[in-house]
Amino acid sequence: MKAATKKNQSPLLALHSILLILFIYIPVFLIIAYSFNNSRINSNWSGFTFKWYSSLFDNRQVMEALSNSLSIALISTVISTVLGTIAAIALRRMTAKRKQGVIGLLYLPIIVPDIIMGLSLLVLFSQFKIDLGKMTVIIAHITFSISYVYVIVASRLANMGKQLEEAASDLGATPWQTFRYVTLPSIWPGVLAGAIMAFTLSIDDFMISFFVAGPNSTTLPIYIYGLVKRGISPEINALCTLMIILSVMLIVLAQWLLNRGNGEKKSSMLPF
After folding, report:
1. 210 near 222, Cβ under 8 Å?
2. For residues 46 and 40, what is the distance between their CA atoms, to the nearest angstrom?
3. CA pair distance 206, 252, nearest whole angstrom
4. Which of 179, 183, 198, 247 is deepest in the core (most CB within 10 A)?
């Protein structure tokens, strides 16, 4: 009876999954398709062309927004990766009672809605009389990126165990040698995956950046928002397509690094 019920439910679950995937990805595929439309009107397909991509790269404002996004993402990624990794290693060595509160604070930027976080950071910068610009956007991106880096690196550390580190200490390794030759090689896929995730979140962020960006720190998402208010054009579709491709590539790379790290065999050979 149970086997028959499961058999009858399987087609419905499969249909539900297919419909859900189509509901999510059909709008994305439409944006990509119309970025190659020869007509400026999305509803009218008049042929295949790459001209919107070439005109996009000739647009000075687009290149300026791209430069801002890349510089902000790179700086915030480096800093948040270092701080998030240090936080994961430090909390691993804390007692369970002491680290519960700290972990809750680290999860807070993930749980709090972006609009509340953006508004709170805007109030903070206003209270300290800090002019809005690239620096405020970088600080904001570091604030929420640290949490994501911590979650990824902490999960990698949890799978690692403490046997190798304890063996290194027994063999006379200093804490720095243990970190350099044992801990870091074991968690580097998680660190790189966390860095890629931080970069992806930074370059895609709109809501928080919208609150804390200044006149000369317009990022690509904010620039796209400004264009959409004047109507959707093929240039917007082309720009969104490039951002979609970049985001997918980075996420796939991050997942590959995590899978590769989880599949690696831990070596028992220590270099000291």
Report:
1. yes
2. 9
3. 22
4. 198
Strand partners, 37: 48
The answer to whether 123 touches 154, Cβ cutoff 8 Å, is no
Structural contact between residues 228 and 236, judged by C-beta atoms closer than 8 angstroms: yes
Distance CA 69, CA 91 (A): 31
Q: Which residues pair with 48 in a beta bridge?
A: 37
Regarding predicted confidence, which is higher, 58 or 261?
58
The 10s digit of each residue's pLDDT in 79-131 is 999 999 999 988 887 777 777 778 888 888 889 999 999 999 999 999 999 99
- Give the count of beta carbons closer than 10 Å to the beta carbon of residue 24: 9
CB 243 within 8 A of CB 204: yes
Greatest CA separation for the chain: 72
Alpha-carbon gap, residue 189 to 101, rounded angstroms? 27
37 three-class SS: strand
What is the 8-class DSSP label of residue 36?
A: T
**Global pTM value:** 0.79
Mean pLDDT over 264-268 rounds to 43
Distance from C-alpha of 6 to C-alpha of 220, rounded to nearest angstrom: 48
pLDDT digits (tens, 9 = 90+) for 159-183: 777 777 778 777 778 888 888 888 8
Structure tokens at 3: 């086997």
- For the chain, domains (ranges, CATH) are 59-263 (1.10.3720.10)
d(CA 136, CA 213): 7
Long-range contacts of 173-181 (CB under 8 A, 24+ apart): 173/270, 173/272, 177/272, 179/89, 181/270, 181/271, 181/272
Tell how far CA 170 is from the center of its chain.
38
